[in-house]
Amino acid sequence: xxxxxxxxxxxxxxxxxxxxxxxxxxxxxxxxxxxxxxxxxxxxxxxxxxxxxxxxxxxxxxxxxxxxxxxxxxxxxxxxxxxxxxxxxxxxxxxxxxxxxxxxxxxxxxxxxxxxxxxxxxxxxxxxxxxxxxxxxxxxxxxxxxxxxxxxxxxxxxxxxxxxxxxxxxxxxxxxxxxxxxxxxxxxxxxxxxxxxxxxxxxxxxxxxxxxxxxxxxxxxxxxxxxxxxxxxxxxxxxxxxxxxxxxxxxxxxxxxxxxxxxxxxxxxxxxxxxxxxxxxxxxxxxxxxxxxxxxxxxxxxxxxxxxxxxxxxxxxxxxxxxxxxxxxxxxxxxxxxxxxxxxxxxxxxxxxxxxxxxxxxxxxxxxxxxxxxxxxxxxxxxxxxxxxxxxxxxxxxxxxxxxxxxxxxxxxxxxxxxxx
Length: 421
Prior knowledge:
The chain is mainly beta. It is 6% helix and 30% strand. The chain has helices at 4-18, 156-159, 202-209, and strands spanning 43-44, 47-58, 64-72, 84-87, 92-98, 116-118, 121-122, 127-128, 135-140, 146-151, 165-171, 192-200, 223-226, 252-254, 266-272, 278-282, 287-292, 295-296, 305-307, 310-312, 317-322, 347-349, 352-354, 380-386, 403-408. Strands 12, 13, 15, 17, 18, 19 and 21 form a seven-stranded mixed sheet that branches. A five-stranded mixed sheet has the order 3-2-5-9-6. A five-stranded mixed sheet has the order 14-25-24-16-20, with no helix packed on it.
């Protein structure tokens, strides 16, 4: 269980994040500082050794949940499974063992062809491995670039709900900085992000933990995650100590588009491992959808489109390009929409400051010692959240769930001047 102090700290961060719905500057505590810009935290092959095992994840409302998941072998439990990054036309092998899940498990790879499975015993869709039952090896050659899921092929309504899923990234051969071979899909390799969503019913997880009957028809989701975390934990960095089983953050971080100094967009890879459809959008911005389920639809074709909200159906994936245009000529001497505040104009809650957007609001006194000050270099934050508002909470406590933040760093700041954690 998460301590009450941790819970208060996270709720303070949540209140801090609420300020971004109408503002340019927002408080971000250093204990949950944004990720520095960087490539995806990939696990690379061509051979991947995975294990299916049990574990627990932490939720921002102070609870924890029993899970199953794919982990590295050897390695500790994690959710979701490792992000597997491979190259088009290069054969790969995934070796799966079952560490301590008391029923047969397997892996299927939607969108992949020619998968050969060896070992274990036959299941409904592919070879399965029982607990302590040796190894099943899955071998195939990924022939189409794109974003894909890998997930259990055994008792899908139970095992995927329990957490047996992950992302498979296939890069085009010879073009590591393109989403596809098409030159129009070029992106900044330091700005590649994964938005992997999932939905969970804690009652079903409790039934599995207690070896009680599992009835998926009674499913009633109470938690929603991005990359294995619920907001506000989604904006913490990769590998933070207080989330040992949830290694992946989900903050999207960019700089304003500039034809000379920052010409390439970010690449957002979205995938839905849950059973429900989820409409997500970056507040006040659009994304350009260039591919669906590993099939290129743009940007040079009539099927490509800029969208304010992108609904990801269960099992669906999208590749999207994103750039933030500095339409108001934002600089350190010309901030938008108002001048960044002095400390005396900040509101503070649970030792975290936040800014309403108005220089006329806020406390007019010195903040207490130990209070975390506002953002580091004048960056902007936008919410990126589900438009199904019931998903914007953690077990009826808002805001939370399917949400993260989009961070825009000042155009005239270097990485040293505008750091991550």
